[in-house]
Design goal:
Elements: H1 2-12, H2 19-26, H3 30-36, H4 40-62, H5 70-86, H6 89-98, H7 115-131, H8 140-154, H9 156-161, H10 165-183
Helix pairs in contact: 1-2, 1-4, 1-6, 4-6, 5-10, 7-8, 8-10
């Protein structure tokens, strides 16, 4: 079911794909899908959870070796994220779209509610506080929210312009520079 859902979300988008199509492609009944998942959003959450495990393994291996300022480390982290997700842009756009579905149940984990990514970003910012390039009075959760919003917004380039990962990384790099000016010590 997850492979079928991943294929449909990637090719048709989250809104257009139906649970009936997922069941048909998986060769199971619609009832079987709902035995395993409460909703289409829960299916998408599970698809993304499976995919993101690879990304987090990659980040966990790289983050301890990142050097430079907090802004530089954030740029590197997001560059890895863009390169990873750009391989399946339509699937990630579906994940973003689901974040705006007001009917999501408690089992769904849309973009923005991913605690693992939030923790990685908080850790990076906290390291910056310890190293003196992030103002200790900075609202770290607020900066994480801003970074995630900018990251999601940058995907408009993929949706509207079919942009490369490199173009999105360049846009995010500029935006991180602007955000970093706001959390720099005064």
């Amino acid at each position: 079911m997850l492979a079928a859902a991943r294929e449909l979300f990637a090719s048709q988008g989250y809104e257009a794909a139906t649970v009936r199509q997922i069941a048909n492609l998986a060769g199971v009944s619609v009832g079987s899908v709902f035995t395993s998942f409460a909703s289409k959003a829960d299916i998408l959450s599970e698809v993304m959870k499976d995919r993101l495990e690879g990304l987090y393994a990659e980040l966990n291996g790289v983050i301890p070796h990142l050097r430079g300022s907090t802004a530089d480390r954030l740029r590197s982290m997001f560059a890895i994220h863009f390169a990873f997700e750009h391989r399946h842009v339509q699937l990630f756009l579906a994940h973003l779209a689901a974040a705006y579905d007001w009917t999501l149940g408690p089992g769904a984990t849309p973009y923005g509610r991913n605690l693992r990514l939030q923790e990685l970003l908080i850790d990076c910012l906290a390291r910056g506080v310890a190293e003196g390039d992030v103002d200790p009075a900075t609202d770290l959760r607020g900066v994480v929210d801003l970074l995630l919003a900018v990251y999601a917004w940058t995907y408009r380039l993929a949706a509207w312009e079919n942009s490369s990962a490199e173009k999105m990384i360049a846009a995010m790099d500029r935006q991180i520079g602007l955000i970093a000016k706001g959390f720099a010590p005064r």
